[in-house]
Design brief:
Layout (H helix, E strand, L loop, with lengths): L2 H7 L5 H12 L5 H15 L2 H13 L4 H26 L15 H4 L5 H15 L2 H13 L4 H27 L1 H4 L2
């Protein structure tokens, strides 16, 4: 399934989501690797099968390398762990836990296999989906320090928001109409 097929699969009530999906797929605010990595990392974060397959296929067709595809998946996996841990620390009232080392392996954060800016953008996208303010702040600060324009960070957030919405709509439609969706 292509992005356009994915867009066409969305029901009429999600017309704005479908339009946003097309606009973001064509947008040039981010370089292609950064953009398609945001799409892939976001699709992995939400895990809805139809959206995930369509987005991965579109990313590969757009030229996302095998290394970048793997790194985007890694960003999603690492953030799935970190977002829970650091969101919990942020929400807990006791500061005692913040002083303890996390003792969680995160080597790929320092050696992602792609440009650090791209990886940081992917971490921002996934952290937005997972709702971790601490991780959002940390990765956004790293991007700012590297001179990334706010419009590029915003583009990563917009991709995350739209991919999340696409996945939620498809999941809801599948639950409501299992025969139509082959479930």
């Amino acid at each position: 399934m292509s992005i356009e097929a994915l867009r066409a699969a969305l029901p009429a009530y999600a017309r704005d989501i479908a339009t946003n999906l097309s606009v973001l797929a064509e947008e040039t605010v981010l370089p292609d690797q950064a953009k398609w990595g945001c799409f892939v990392a976001s699709a992995h974060a939400v895990g809805e099968p139809s959206a995930l397959r369509a987005i991965e296929a579109a990313a590969v067709a757009a030229g996302l390398s095998a290394e970048a595809l793997e790194a985007a998946k890694t960003a999603s996996a690492i953030m799935a762990m970190n977002n829970v841990y650091f969101r919990a620390l942020h929400l807990m009232t006791s500061p005692a836990y913040r002083d303890l080392p996390s003792r969680l392996r995160m080597n790929r954060l320092s050696r992602p296999g792609v440009a650090a800016v791209d990886y940081e953008l992917w971490c921002v996208a996934v952290s937005a989906i997972n709702g971790c303010g601490a991780c959002l702040d940390s990765h956004e600060a790293e991007l700012r320090e590297r001179g990334v324009p706010t419009a590029q960070v915003q583009a990563a957030l917009r991709i995350a928001a739209v991919v999340n919405a696409v996945a939620r709509v498809l999941s809801a439609e599948s639950a409501a109409n299992p025969q139509k969706w082959g479930v």
